Structure formats: C-alpha cells, structure tokens
Amino acid sequence: MHLGNSVTAAGFWLGTLLPLAYFPVFFSGIDSTGSLSLFLALLAVHVVALVIGHDYTGSRTQ
Q: Where are the domains of the chain?
C-alpha cells in the first residue's frame, strides 16, 4: 500500500469516527471559550479528514 493510499484511508476513517468525539463536548456544554475552541477545532479536523478521505476506494462498492 502506498503512502497516499494510507493517508486517504486514515482520513476516511477519521472522518467517519470523529463525530463520536462531539458527544462529550455537547454533554459538557459549550459555555466557555475553551469548550467553543475545542468544538471548532474538532469541526476543522473533521472537515480536513473528510476532504482527505473523500477518494478512499474502500468505501465504494464495485
């Protein structure tokens, strides 16, 4: 497997599983600057992961 394929696969799976990290942030509440910064950072990482993992071939049926 080439490095590009590994990065794409990692981006796909990170983009797939990262929404699970939103739950603790939502349950603790976004009532401070730190919580808001954490939420926005998670959102930014999620967007980058989705863009990188968009071409992952393992997610499509043949």
A: 3-59
